[in-house]
Task: structure prediction
Amino acid sequence: MNRRLFVQAGLASAAFAQGPAPQVSAPPMPAPKKAKITSSVMLWTLKGSFEEKLQIAAKSGIQSVELVAEHIHWSDEQIRSMKKLAESLGLAMDTIIATPDWKSRPVSMVNPAQRDNFLKDVQQSIVFAKKLEIPQIILMSGDEIPGKTHDEQYASLLEGTKRAGDLAAKANLTLIVEPLNAKVNHKGFFLTNCVEGLKLMKDVDNPHVKLLFDIYHEQVQMGNVTQTLTQAVQHVAVFHIADNPGRNDPGTGEMNYTNIYKAIQKTGYSGYICMEYLPLAEPVASLKKAVDHMRSSVLA
Result:
């Protein structure tokens, strides 16, 4: 399952979207300890209800969670209930996506004709982020537009990012732009690598706009991960973690995550490192192993 399929499945589910807020009891747990690097997990990668996914994250020792579209149909009562549940489990929520259905709606950042739609979605996501006390919102460039040059589309991406960045600055939130690989997972996607993502950050020049560096996507699209992340790290707010091929547990593929983590550690990075992989084993054990490895490497 990828994020697009997850969103389609999530939006189709009426059981959670309607009715009163779910009543879920959970044993009280301490709030996450402050840390230079905060561990997180993208919830779409886990199976079960939202509540069950939070339980998995908490049991694995993770400090925070990232959402895609889970919140879209939540009432204010459900928002309060989900916040309370996460807090009782010692979990923060750190990220949502501004345009989770970017494949099916006209909200592309590279199409000037769709900019108003895109900015409306950003504004709406800011409302949700404030209610959920979420500090970051992911932006997706959208797919390439046939007949438009790369430079034309980049200019639109730049303008849209600047305009969205102004909204984020007023709300005191951070937007994080995510490149996705177009070779395997997202055919036709426009912003495919963090080399160009770094250029975008420099061109935007707004402290409220950062880069989401997905190490898996960068490996698939470009390789040369450690050099690129070292160059980009001052503009990075979040690293996403998965191995290649298959987007599975770190350590199950071709990538040397010990060396990657040590490269991150040497930069002095402080931010989020988020597990966004499909666990091959039991998810709690898998995530605990992955997070323990990350922590031992970046703190060594």
Q: What stands out?
A: The chain is about 40% helix and 15% strand. The domain at 36-298 is CATH 3.20.20.150 (TIM Barrel). Strands lie at 38-42, 64-66, 92-97, 136-139, 174-177, 209-214, 236-241, 272-275.
